[in-house]
Structures are given as C-alpha cells and as structure tokens.
C-alpha cells in the first residue's frame, strides 16, 4: 500500500523523531536520499551542472545539504537564494564549503534544476519573484524536493504558478499531493526516501499490485456459481444498445459466479438489446431473479429511474452509474445499503450543482464531500480516480494509461465493480480494486497504444490470473 499523510500528521511524526535523534540527523537522511536520487537521474555526478533554487525554510536546507553532497563528488552546483536573509545557515555553509556557488541569476544551462523553494511549510502558489524565475527555466529538467512548490500539499490543489517537476523526491511518507490530481500531475515520478518516522493510519492510500492480489475474490474449492455471487445488470436501452453489452462484459469478467441481464421495458421492446448481449455473452442469463449486487445506469436513458427503483427494491449492494446518477435523489438515494456511485467530473458536477471545473480542480475534496452527502462510496473517475468512503478515507488509483479515456470504458468498470460487490467485497474494496484492475487491464491489453472498452473487458481475466500467480 502506498500511504499518504497530511502535513499535520507528518509534523507530529517528525517532532517525535526529532526528540530521539541527534540534531540535524533527519535532514541529513533526507539530503542523502535526495542526493542519491539526483545522482541516479544525472547518471554521472562529476562535472554535472546543477542549479538549486532555495527558499526560506528546511526544504531549502535539505536542498542545500544535497547540493553540498553532489558538489563534494565533483558536480558544479549553483544556487539561487530566494530569501537570502532567511536561508538555512547550516545548509548554505555546507554548500559553500563543498565549492558550491551562490549566484544572482542562473547560468545558461544546467543538467537539472532542484526546487527547494517550499515543501510542507508552503502555502498558496509561487510568489511573483519565484514564479518569474521558475517560468524562465521551464525548459530544464526539474526535481522537486518533498513537494513541487506552489501546489497544495494536503488537497493536491493547483491554483497559480507552481513548479512542474519531472521527479519529486519526498521524505518520510507520501503526501496527498503525490497521489491526487491535479497536484499529482505536477509531481512527475515520485520517489520516497524513508526517514524511519512512526506514522498513524493514512487518510489517503493507493493500492499496489500485491494489495489488489490480496483483495481479489477467489472461489472456495467447493464453490458453485451462487456461492460466488450473482451480479445483476440493468443497463442499455433502445438508444444505447452497446452500453448494455459493455456493462455485461465488465460484470462477466469471471470474478462473480453469474451475470443476470435485465433490460428496460417489455421483452419485445428490449429484443434488439437482448440479442446483442446474448451474442456477445451467451453465458449471461436474461431476466429478473435473485442477485447479490446490482449495476444500474449505463446507457439507461429515460428508463434509468425505473431501473434504479427496481434495483433498490432489493436489499443488496448497488453500483449507480451514468444515467442512473442523475435520478438517484428522486429515487430516494441508496438508503444505507453498501453502494458505489461512479461519476466522472461532469456527472458529479451535475449531481451536486457545482461547475465541472471546480470538481476537476478539487478532486479529493469533491469526492469526499459527495461520499458524505450521498452516504456511500463515491468513485470520481479520472486520470487518477479517487475512491472516497463516507468516513473520509480515500484510495486513489494511479494505474491506467490515458488511452483508457475511451467511450464505453466506464460501462465496463461499472460491471466489474458490480461483480466484485456480488462476490462479497465491501463497497470500498470493490470500487478501489475494480478501478485498479480496470486500469491495469487496459495497460495489459495494449501496453503502449489505443485500446477499446471491449478489449479492456477481455483483458480482465488474464490480468487477474497474473495477479494471483504473483500472489500478495
Ligand atoms: N527539519 C528537518 O530536519 C527535516 C526537514 N524536512 C524538510 O522540511 C520541509 C518543511 O520545512 P519548513 O517547515 O521549514 O517549511 P518549508 O521549507 O516548506 O517552507 C517554509 C517557508 O517558506 C515560506 N513560504 C510559505 N509559502 C510560500 C510561498 N508560497 N512562496 C514563498 N515562500 C513561502 C514561509 O514563510 C516559510 O518561511 C519539508 O518539506 C522537508 O523538505 C524533512 O526532510 C524532514 C527533516
Ligand atoms: N487521462 C486518463 N488516464 C487514465 N485513465 C483515464 C483518463 N481519463 C479517463 N480515464 C478513465 O477512463 C474511464 C472513462 O470512463 P467514463 O468517463 O465513464 O467514460 P464512458 O462514459 O464513455 O464509458 C474511467 O475509468 C476513467 O478513470
Ligand atoms: K519543493
């Protein structure tokens, strides 16, 4: 599990660590890790040209000490001080003693620029002087120390000039900004340097491969299809026939024992949708019956309210997707049952009356507020999908190529999450595992290129088999 802690949690853990470590030891650990990461990035240290951009606090201190380590190994290290009278004394002395230079303006070229402007003590966007300097050096490779300066650490908010890093070297633990967009986009690759901090449970996490393997449902030796769980799909309509097929294809990934498909309207009206579903998935059973979870909404059009009411009449977990999201409140909400809502930013904006740009600008806060408001798990789908529990916990999915942003991918995901719910996972696990498997299946189906929603669905069984082979 990748764990991200808030600034307040990190401060508390650092204070406890300061009390039992010699003065400056933690900063030296951070600086050593940073210098190693910089050396790995540079490939060669001797003769490398390094620019440090240093602010007023300990983030600058880490940066100066790391610069000193590189200078001692033969790098040419220049340093711009943004707050010369508040610079970390020990760090600056170490850099100078190692042969590093303080410059007023950067030279013509560097192999890397290091952002030591602010870390967890930062607030708000870069101030004008720093913004102008960083802007003039945007062609350089940037390494952010702890966090990219100018980006919100706890919320991942980006509301003004900031550093856009290629690599972020962070200390002690991840922070929410490293996982949650839009901030995560400014971090580039994130590398964690362990400081040996004693940390509390993390409010924001990202499942890793072995976590997903441990959570995947597996049939007991004496399983039969009903003990593995039946997932019911109420999706598709005369106008959106394919959505029914794709929703069923996600549900029929093999993680549950059986799929029931229940189209809207009479059997005659639904005949074309049924024909498509049966042609693609002859194993799906058409018609109502007992299920352990419902998936409702993709391509449901005008029938969505009727379909959602029918699903909610059963006291089983439910995935509310696509068109069903906009009728959730008129249908009485999820009424306390385990449920996953799966909006993208546009859908969440409509559900909550907030402009889409505001949802996209605060994905962590938007998903959390929606989970509290609707009283269930909310999965805000995007590049880094945010799965929020009503109690405030969050899991972020960081796998999945941008090719996954393709029509119908959401239908497959809804079906997949439904299968996991039917198999007995909690709503929180089903949503976070489903989102991870969905992203990884897209990468497996076509590692570096375009992928269709149907191909993502077809790759799910092989992806799960690989996870189970590797084991937790
Ligand atoms: N002290 C230590 O031994 C350790 C320090 N660490 C480092 O210390 C950092 C936190 O240090 P600090 O608490 O000193 O805080 P920072 O160095 O993150 O920044 C605080 C300073 O920046 C100024 N500032 C805040 N927002 C600004 C903005 N938008 N533009 C310009 N200036 C701004 C503040 O006035 C303050 O003086 C961590 O991010 C990490 O890099 C960690 O490595 C752990 C060990
Ligand atoms: N830039 C991106 N990188 C990775 N995955 C993405 C990106 N944009 C969207 N996705 C994923 O693609 C899927 C799109 O689903 P959705 O928006 O519901 O599309 P549709 O309604 O057409 O099925 C979601 O799983 C989402 O997380
Ligand atoms: K920084």
From TrEMBL:
<keyword id="KW-0479">Metal-binding</keyword>
<comment type="function">
    <text>Catalyzes the epimerization of the S- and R-forms of NAD(P)HX, a damaged form of NAD(P)H that is a result of enzymatic or heat-dependent hydration. This is a prerequisite for the S-specific NAD(P)H-hydrate dehydratase to allow the repair of both epimers of NAD(P)HX.</text>
</comment>
<feature type="binding site">
    <location>
        <position position="146"/>
    </location>
    <ligand>
        <name>(6S)-NADPHX</name>
    </ligand>
</feature>
<comment type="subunit">
    <text>Homotetramer.</text>
</comment>
<comment type="similarity">
    <text>In the N-terminal section; belongs to the NnrE/AIBP family.</text>
</comment>
<dbReference type="InterPro" id="IPR030677">
    <property type="entry name" value="Nnr"/>
</dbReference>
<feature type="binding site">
    <location>
        <position position="149"/>
    </location>
    <ligand>
        <name>K(+)</name>
    </ligand>
</feature>
<feature type="binding site">
    <location>
        <position position="410"/>
    </location>
    <ligand>
        <name>AMP</name>
    </ligand>
</feature>
<keyword id="KW-0413">Isomerase</keyword>
<keyword id="KW-0067">ATP-binding</keyword>
<keyword id="KW-0456">Lyase</keyword>
<keyword id="KW-0547">Nucleotide-binding</keyword>
<comment type="function">
    <text>Catalyzes the dehydration of the S-form of NAD(P)HX at the expense of ADP, which is converted to AMP. Together with NAD(P)HX epimerase, which catalyzes the epimerization of the S- and R-forms, the enzyme allows the repair of both epimers of NAD(P)HX, a damaged form of NAD(P)H that is a result of enzymatic or heat-dependent hydration.</text>
</comment>
<dbReference type="Pfam" id="PF01256">
    <property type="entry name" value="Carb_kinase"/>
</dbReference>
<feature type="binding site">
    <location>
        <begin position="119"/>
        <end position="125"/>
    </location>
    <ligand>
        <name>(6S)-NADPHX</name>
    </ligand>
</feature>
<keyword id="KW-0521">NADP</keyword>
<feature type="binding site">
    <location>
        <position position="59"/>
    </location>
    <ligand>
        <name>K(+)</name>
    </ligand>
</feature>
<comment type="similarity">
    <text>Belongs to the NnrE/AIBP family.</text>
</comment>
<feature type="binding site">
    <location>
        <position position="115"/>
    </location>
    <ligand>
        <name>K(+)</name>
    </ligand>
</feature>
<feature type="binding site">
    <location>
        <position position="344"/>
    </location>
    <ligand>
        <name>(6S)-NADPHX</name>
    </ligand>
</feature>
<keyword id="KW-0630">Potassium</keyword>
<dbReference type="Pfam" id="PF03853">
    <property type="entry name" value="YjeF_N"/>
</dbReference>
<feature type="binding site">
    <location>
        <position position="299"/>
    </location>
    <ligand>
        <name>(6S)-NADPHX</name>
    </ligand>
</feature>
<feature type="binding site">
    <location>
        <position position="243"/>
    </location>
    <ligand>
        <name>(6S)-NADPHX</name>
    </ligand>
</feature>
<keyword id="KW-0520">NAD</keyword>
<dbReference type="InterPro" id="IPR004443">
    <property type="entry name" value="YjeF_N_dom"/>
</dbReference>
<keyword id="KW-0511">Multifunctional enzyme</keyword>
<feature type="domain" description="YjeF C-terminal">
    <location>
        <begin position="208"/>
        <end position="467"/>
    </location>
</feature>
<feature type="binding site">
    <location>
        <position position="411"/>
    </location>
    <ligand>
        <name>(6S)-NADPHX</name>
    </ligand>
</feature>
<dbReference type="InterPro" id="IPR036652">
    <property type="entry name" value="YjeF_N_dom_sf"/>
</dbReference>
<dbReference type="InterPro" id="IPR000631">
    <property type="entry name" value="CARKD"/>
</dbReference>
<feature type="domain" description="YjeF N-terminal">
    <location>
        <begin position="10"/>
        <end position="203"/>
    </location>
</feature>
<feature type="binding site">
    <location>
        <begin position="381"/>
        <end position="385"/>
    </location>
    <ligand>
        <name>AMP</name>
    </ligand>
</feature>
<dbReference type="InterPro" id="IPR029056">
    <property type="entry name" value="Ribokinase-like"/>
</dbReference>
<protein>
    <recommendedName>
        <fullName>Bifunctional NAD(P)H-hydrate repair enzyme</fullName>
        <ecNumber>4.2.1.136</ecNumber>
        <ecNumber>5.1.99.6</ecNumber>
    </recommendedName>
</protein>
<feature type="binding site">
    <location>
        <begin position="58"/>
        <end position="62"/>
    </location>
    <ligand>
        <name>(6S)-NADPHX</name>
    </ligand>
</feature>
